[in-house]
Write a structure and sequence with these properties.
With 268 residues, this protein is α+β, with helices and mostly antiparallel strands. It is 20% helix and 26% strand. The strands form five sheets. A six-stranded mixed sheet has the order 7-4-6-5-9-8. It is rod-shaped.
Amino acid sequence: MGMDVYLKSQRKYTPVKVAEAEELLRNSSNFLTEVEKVVLNESIGRISSEEICSPTNIPAGDTSMVDGFALRSVAFKTTKSFQIECSILAGHPKVELEDGNRAVYVSTGAFMPNGADMVVPIEGCSVSEGQVCISDSFSGLESGSNVRVVGSDTHKGDVIMKKGVQISAAEIAMLNACKVSEIACFKKISVSVLSTGLEVYTGMVADANRPYIINRLGESDFANCIEMGDLGIMKDDEPTFPQLLKDSDFDVLITTGSISKGMTDHFK
């Protein structure tokens, strides 16, 4: 490029302040439009593209908070000795407590028997010959004691994750608890990095910026939202740049070098 042509070319470019450049970038970006389904346990660090409501109650039914004996509070007011009807462990289906003068052994997390409305912890019970006797020190228990009520953690229909949230281990745990197996996320942004400059291209000057940018993005909080591309080093050759932009597929191009108003600075 001759000096006269170079000087005329500078009239096209007006420098802007950093804040204006940031605003231009925000207004011209349309990255967060495409959506894809992602397996939940592979979604760490991704950005949710939809609001998610719980499809179920947690817990799904009334459950015991302790190991102990489930019984009816009405009967507990008049007696502290009960015949043991059966036992139910976590993961087992519900049973019926058909006789108010009986008790059912339950483990922590087990469904409460239909008809029972309280649990006496095993520490307050003594068992002998099919009978359980309740210690007087636990006589203050009442209806609802040691019972985890259906939906007490999460009700069906509750919003458990909002749109635009970066998914962490906490969100994955909550969604797994609600039996959500996949989630809609915004597609990853493709980011390519390019170094320019004949002095870098020839090795006269070491290329430190490009590896730094690539690895800095790789260690950032949004690393899992990015598809990283490395375009290598390009010498200061004006006709080459349009072809690069035509041939490459990226949402964001980060360049280092060749961004001023010099004769060989072709990126503006």
